[in-house]
Amino acid sequence: MIGELHANEPSGPLEDRWNRHRFDMALVNPANRRKHTVIVVGTGLAGAAAAATLGELGYRVKSFCFQDSPRRAHSIAAQGGINAAKNYQNDGDSVWRLFYDTIKGGDFRSRESNVYRLAEISANIIDQAVAQGVPFAREYSGLLANRSFGGAQVARTFYARGQTGQQLLLGACQALNRQVAAGTVDLYPRTEMLELIRIDGRARGIVTRNLVDGTLAAHTADCVVLCTGGYGNAYYLSTNAQGCNTSAIWRAHRHGALFANPCFTQIHPTCIPQSGHYQSKLTLMSESLRNDGRVWAPLHAADAPRNPGEIPEQRRDYFLERRYPAFGNLVPRDIASRAAKEVCDAGHGVGPEVNGRRLGVYLDFSGAIADLGEAVIRERYGNLFEMYQRITGEDPWHTPMRIYPASHYTMGGLWVDYNLMTTIDGLFAAGECNFSDHGANRLGASALMQGLADGYFILPCSIGNYLARHEPGQLAADHAAVRGAVADVHARIERLLHAPAAQHPPEVFHRRLGQLLWDHCGMSRDPAGLQLALQELPRLREAFWREVKVSGSGADFNQVLERAGRVADFLELGELMCVDALARNESCGSHARTDHLTADGEVQRDDADYSYVAAWEYSGDPGAPQLHREQLHFEFVRPSVRSYK
Amino acid sequence: MKLQLHIWKQADSRSPGRFETCDPGDVSPDMSFLEMLDELNEQLVAAGREPVAFDHDCREGICGACGLVINGVPHGPLQATTTCQLYLREFADGDEITVEPWRAGAFPVIRDLVVDRGGLDRILQAGGYISVRTGSAPDGNTLPVPKEDSEQAFAAAACIGCGACAAACPNASASLFVAAKIAHLGRLPQGQPERDTRARTMLAQMEAEGFGYCSNHRECEVVCPKEIRIDVIARMNRDLYRSLLWRS
Known about the structure:
The structure holds 2 protein chains of 2 kinds.
Chain A: H1 17-24, H2 30-33, E1 37-41, H3 45-57, E2 60-64, E3 82-83, H4 95-105, H5 112-132, E4 157-158, H6 164-182, E5 185-188, E6 191-199, E7 202-210, E8 216-220, E9 223-226, H7 247-254, E10 259-260, E11 265-271, E12 294-298, E13 316-317, H8 319-323, H9 333-348, E14 353-354, E15 357-358, E16 361-364, H10 366-372, H11 374-392, E17 401-410, E18 413-414, E19 427-429, H12 447-468, H13 480-497, H14 506-520, H15 527-547, H16 559-583, H17 607-610, E20 612-617, E21 626-631
Helix pairs in contact in A: 3-6, 3-12, 4-5, 5-12, 10-11, 14-15, 14-16, 15-16
Chain B: E1 4-9, E2 18-22, H1 33-46, E3 69-70, E4 73-74, E5 96-100, E6 109-111, E7 114-115, H2 118-125, H3 147-157, H4 164-168, H5 175-186, H6 195-208, H7 219-223, H8 231-247
Parallel strand pairs in B: 1-5
Antiparallel strand pairs in B: 1-2, 3-4, 3-5, 6-7
């Protein structure tokens, strides 16, 4: 039913494309904008920015979030910073360089036009945030400070201590609150989208559940925007917030929105390791720690249980510095993560045993403290040291931190064209929930940039362009498709509440799913493991629908029901992740197939056969989706081997 | 280790609540307080009983969703720590612990330990922003901000909107929350044009939401997980008086 994929990207010189495209887009007369209603689901950076900006322009906006306040969306937890090609440091940065770094960091699996636009818009984001009152770090001159982040060789990252995401989100939420006060945006907190309403091929609304009293409602609009974040919680343990889920995009996928590159998931190297079976989430510590901390593991497996202070220097393996002399501890996230996994798999991991294994390596500041002094380290990382101590009960000033990789970000997501529209007419996806800019691996400080670029600057244009071509129209509340969608949601909730052999809470299935994905579709993948997971996952899904136990009723505040619905969707997505990982017979970026590595263990791309975006169409069976390919064309950069040696 | 929990159970804002004693079983000192409640809830659901409702999300102390009154103190015994960052190693084997929701008239209970904090957002909607349109901003470096001012603004902007300040206040005042936003924006040159109206409109909304006034008990700054100090309240009052003088 879906033919060839058209990205609708403009042609011509790269630096003119967005400008020309904006000129080519249709406009809605200001007086007519209030006749159009736009639904925005999610209030993270992309969602809050889009809702606020569309409201400012005069559209009627309905903004939804499952949290009790829009300010709590998970963008709030981003620590490190936001990239922008300002070149304030005069260190040779430019839009072209940010574009190139992002394409290269993504291992040449993203679309040139989109990435160039992102780099181009990055500077406007900083200006916007400053004007809103975002308290970025500053120099004594009063001008904005920058740091080099995540291995970049220029200092282009703007930051607000370790709370950059919080401050940018509060800025976006201030803009949103202003529009709520102005009456252009209606806010629906504690309201979860459970279904998409699609009429005559167009996205026309959503079905929501009020999480306080369980009421189901249909909201209709002239278009629908999903800004619902990533699906990293598929792994159960991740650095995502507990509520982060895939349900909105998975519902859209089931309605025909293609899901692109689901196997591209980022595993972040500097997280606090798991301490026991009860663990509910993993905490990320900013990778800025790798600027001064040195990563090591015992050279001899026999030393693994020893106190690190007792392991002499010559018996320590600084494995990142050894393997990557040029970049050392600052290699990109995927490389650092995989190296730590290999060290632990070889029996050199440290820390307490969980399920019979030690999964952790040291991140050691003793040299930096000796060189720079405690005061400097405290100023740079004091809050992170405190956080580490609070969580582990260990003192990182005197004993090295322990770190291990954890699921952190998902590059995959709904396939979108240059206008951020999915393959469903009138359904847009922005921020982490789309696939568009990060290829097979996201660079540090680029997620905030993308969310805000999409929300503040791209969607307001492309949604206007869409609405200008469609007559605004109210849908009757009793339209058959609306009633049908509500009835479907109701039936699904009833099914969750009344499983035939109900016995296990939803977490039990989520944990099993997470373990399967972590083992077979995590930091490294191989065909046998993926095939095994693909046999297990349908069984797990069946067991879930047979045995899941949900207390309470649907007409009530019911957190178990919320969780169960999200786990049901993760179970289907997990299969798609494995299908995608199995079909991509190459390694690239975060996707490391052990059967496609170079002789010295690095990822080996296959540009001849796999230089495409894998966009999957739902077929009714989550294990048998149909593949559509968007070929990637590199007109301006030449795909090269990503070497950090 | 073993703990005995006395947890507040309440079906909704209209129903009366009561304490219920729960045994989470054998727990580890390395568990977080919320992970203990997770385990308890899994046991309750498996046994066909109602779990304990509580708000939480990021579990890293930044989203502001969680908030329990633990042994009478919002966010529990540790300073500068949200509930989600509290670990059981802070308690002793055999301890009895009471767990309650935020207590304030302006925070009606939704269920058990979950309260409605919508009032805080409505206060922000009454003026907690700088009225700048997307796309109209000048280059970020055209407006230098002294480092000291910027850092003071950041310290106030670190508020996570959890509501512990109002829950701790004998007057159930949200003054620390309101003043933090006013200090954040008022410290910056960008925030000056609307400074005179901001305190007035936000405080009017605070009153309309049913929060009380500040009478300098200073309970708020003791429980604030982000260590926001009450000098921001003095600043807010100065802005308020200044605006009243300008108006007359």
